[in-house]
Amino acid sequence: MSSTKTKMAVKSILISQPKPEEGQKSPYFDLAQERKIKVDFRHFIHVEGIEAQEFRQARVDLKNFTAVIMTSRSSIDHYFRMAEEMRFDVPDTMKYFCTNETIAKYLQKYIVYRKRKISFGKAQFNDLMPLIQKNKNEKFLLPLSAQHNGSISVILKNNEINFSEAIIYKTVISDLSDLADVNYDMLVFFSPSGIESLYHNFPDFKQNDTKIAVWGQSTADAVLKKGLRIDVQAPNSKAPSMKKAIENHMDGKE
Q: 223: closest CA among 198, 204, 253, 250?
């Protein structure tokens, strides 16, 4: 990816996430329209499911669990995919504990939402713990990515929750070779994996005047570790969303 342009206002932005599906709303669509700028989407990383044969080697039997902890849409997709591949008919009595309401509502893709026992927190996993603690008699399954950091498992262990991990998907670096000669005024990252993908695809990347926006402290740490400059960081006291943080930067209100 080239970045040899002169310093200029932000006229083009690359969001390192998949483009929302047709019909879905996105604050970045609004940003492009309101500011009359170019906003493109490209997943720097993507999720692939663990094959059933590999899952069997972990000796995790889905029928032994009475509750599932869902921390992302990917965990939901691949839990039900694995259940189908393992020929496990998820019972109507299964309880679901989700990090937030958005993730909980995503369960509607696979189950009749109003007829199931579904609990969810506000935002962080710690918000969900009181609900999990009230159901300590359940045997919980925690679907995870192969690249998980273990923090949720630590919390569950510290609270003496009966659970087992299940690695059912993995994060894979995407091929970005077609962007080699494409310039953007700003690159927007949401995870350390996005930075890893950038350097995997473009090991000689130089920031120059390219602006970098990051979401969260872990992403910021990954950017700084590479010796790059952070121009926009969200969330912050003036901007709870990435869209607002970018707008503040464009307006010089940081």
A: 198
